[in-house]
Amino acid sequence: MGRGEFYRNKYGGGGRGRGRGGSGGYERPSPPSAPTASAPALDWRQLAELLRQLNGRNYGGYHELERVFAYSSAASGLQFRLAFDHVQGDPYASPSRAHVQLAPAAAGFPSDAHAPSKVRNVALCDFLTRCFAASARRAGADAKTVSASYHGEKGGDISIDAPGQHVIERSSVMVLPDGTVEARFNINLPARGRSISGDWAHAILVETLPALVERALVFRNLDADALWTHVRSVEDQEHLRGLLRGAGLVGFVRDGAVLPRLSGASDLPLSAHAAVPFRSPPTLARSFPLPNAGVVTGMGIPAGVTLFVGGGFHGKTTVLKALEVGVYNHVPGDGREFVAVDPAAVKIRAEDARSVATTDISAFIANLPFKLDTRRFATADASGSTSQAANIVEALEVGATTLLIDEDTCATNFMIRDAKMQQLVAADKEPITPFIAKVRALFEREGVSSVLVVGGAGDYFSVADHVIMMDAYAPRDVTREAKAIAAAHPAIRQDSVFGGFTARIPLPRGFEVTGKVVSRGIGRIQYGEVDLDLSAVEQIVEPSQVRAIADGIVKMRSYMDGKRTLAEVLDILEQEFDRTASLDVIGPHRKSGFYTRPRRFELAAAINRLRTATMTQ
Predict the structure, then answer these.
(1) How high is the pLDDT of residue 143?
(2) Count: domains in the chain
(3) Within-domain flag for 227
(4) Confidence band of 88 (pLDDT split at 50, 70, 90)
(5) DSSP class of 509
(6) DSSP states along 163-200
(7) Which of 22, 213, 285, 514 has the smallest set of CB atoms within 10 Å of its CB?
(8) What pLDDT is stored for residue 39 in this prediction?
């Protein structure tokens, strides 16, 4: 009997809601005292007997589960080991953490599904995570009971870190080189009041968990066609992204891609009958051979300065939004599977009121009143223009090679200064050098491309290499027409050099934490007593990336020695991720299944926005 059926029969369906428990935030867990999965194990009958003995005892008795249990079924051939990495001390506390491990023979995955390359391994782990989440949902095992009564029933759910539309390296499932499979999940151990509900725990652990493992983590029980479609699609997407630079491109959108989303609150694709499939203009069409799917054809976005123009609601921002997440691979059927962008592309916007720590924004802003030094600019309350300048320089500092910019979210005075304003306000009275004056030098001298959505600033025609008009979601190459219009107007002043910047050194004292580090959703971290706002960092796509960023900052503090630059600190962390083939390096505990790997750019964005951050040059 599954967990859902067990409780529908025994307790009815009232009082349940979906969720992982707690207050909606993720708290950095304390180190566990649990044994590793290689420790001597008790068998499944002993687990059942232990739960019988614990029934009705004080909730703290659940700590007796901090050991390893071995499951073996002669009927199905299923074998695995269950280990509790952390057992919650209270029914209101953060859930217990556990993992199961299947030996290669028990899991049965062919080596070519995970061993040939990292991208296949990531894709398989992502697929298995989705299978586990779907199996738990179908069984009702992810439904948490919440009672308003002190003596009521609480908990009872098993939850894995269910992914969204993106396929990213995550810690929820790991497939080791020898084929060992490890799945990590949370369990809200059930209670009545503050007493152990042993019969409910028996249903969850002894009965439901083996069924989930068998359905989701054993190759012979999976849809092999769906698995291989997932793995090969992700491999093709990664391969395509790797071809862009050699082809002189910074982006690519496949013909037939479905870019619009279902709604502003959903990342699912718009239904096929409502969406306009993307079709490349003939002048920008490119084709690439892929390892599995053959040749893919679509629109190439060349390196340089590219504009997307057009009327409101015609699809300009929709394209840019798709390119923003083109740094990630996507699940088959998402519609954006073969929308690829330079892996070092960063979305840039204005961000009023953010803090800035000793950043050299002199390429864009100089001669501020009161003789403020913009080579070492620091503020707790940046304006639109200074924040956008800082965002660009900070991205370049850690290796960005393409900037993605939407006019709608920019500071107008940072983007452009038209002829009439130049006549009224003398150059020596204006501290801002607008982006339009730097965008050519940024590409020609620094090798950094820009892709811009422009709806009202036609002066950018003069500095663009390519202009693409979105007309009812259909792209047209209007470069020739735009250049003819630009030629009929006075030339736009261009700086011949970008101006550069000075690399910064983060000092560990600025990253000390007093209190807990808690991630909250997709846009906020409580870093001790400091609130870190990441809501404007638009290429963060999963809450588990924020969890990883939160613990990653704490980890990176140990790399800060007063000599290493921010880029070098990020290099060390990325090398540790790759060396260990795991995200566990950032956690204070042995295992966490709720991390998704962030890019270096989003890690840097968090460091730069921490209001206690201390930098030197």
Answers:
(1) 83
(2) 3
(3) no
(4) very high
(5) G
(6) --SEE--BSSEEE-TTS-EEEEEEE---EETTEE-HHH
(7) 514
(8) 64
Whether residue 12 is predicted with pLDDT greater than 50 in this model: the reply is no
Residue 531 and residue 513 in contact, taking contact as beta carbons nearer than 8 Å: no
Report residue 387 as tokens.
């924040």
**Residue 500 CB neighbours (<10 A):** 12
* CB burial of residue 345 (10 Å; 0-12, 13-18, 19+): buried
> Chain-wide mean pLDDT for the chain?
92
| Token pair for 379 | 């503020």
Got the DSSP string for 342-371?
-TTEEEE---TT--EEEE--TTTB---GGG
Indicate whether 420 and 546 sit together in one domain.
no
In a domain, 500, yes or no: no
Rg, Å, the chain Cα set: 27
What is the mean predicted confidence (pLDDT) over 60-66?
Answer: 97
Residue 560 maps to a domain? yes
Per-residue pLDDT tens over the stretch 568-593: 999 999 999 999 999 999 987 779 99
Is residue 253 one of the residues assigned to a domain? no
pLDDT at 213: 99
For 82: left if phi > 0, alpha if psi spans -120 to 50, otherwise beta; the answer is beta
Mean pLDDT lowest among 11-25, 209-223, 537-551: 11-25
Residue 4 has pLDDT above 60, yes or no: no
pLDDT for 25 equals 46
What are 501's two structure tokens? 């910047």
Rounded distance between C-alpha atoms, residue 332 and residue 318, angstroms: 19
Q: If you write DSSP's letter for every residue of 421-468 in order, what string do you get? A: HHHHS-GGG--B--GGGTHHHHHHHH--EEEEE-SS-GGGGGG-SEEE
Tokens found for residue 129: 């995570």
How far lies 535's CA from each of 520, 521, 523, 525, 602, in Å? 11, 10, 4, 10, 11
The C-alpha atoms of residue 154 and residue 158 are separated, in whole angstroms, by 13
91 and 164 in a single domain? The answer is yes
Distance CA 122, CA 114 (A): 8
Regarding whether 57 and 128 lie in a shared domain, the answer is yes
How many angstroms separate the most distant Cα atoms in the chain?
87
Alpha carbon separation from 133 to 127, 137, 181, 520 (Å, rounded): 10, 6, 16, 21
Check if the beta carbon of residue 566 is closer than 8 Å to that of residue 604: yes
Confidence band for 368, pLDDT divided at 50, 70 and 90: confident
Last-in-domain residue among 165, 197, 222: 222
* CA-closest candidate to residue 252, choices 165, 337, 348: 337
Q: Which of 201, 212, 160, 210 is nearest to 64 (CA)?
A: 201
Task: Provide the domain limits for residue 39.
Answer: 3-222
Q: Are residues 116 and 192 in the same domain?
A: yes
Q: In this structure, are 52 and 195 located in the same domain? A: yes
What pLDDT shows up at residue 151?
64
Q: Are residues 519 and 591 in the same domain?
A: yes
Do 527 and 407 lie in a common domain?
A: no
Interatomic CA distance for residues 313 and 127, integer angstroms: 35
Task: Give the domain-ending residue among 191, 222, 253.
Answer: 222
Distance between CA 27 and CA 33 in Å, rounded?
18
Name the pLDDT band for 134 (thresholds 50, 70, 90): very high
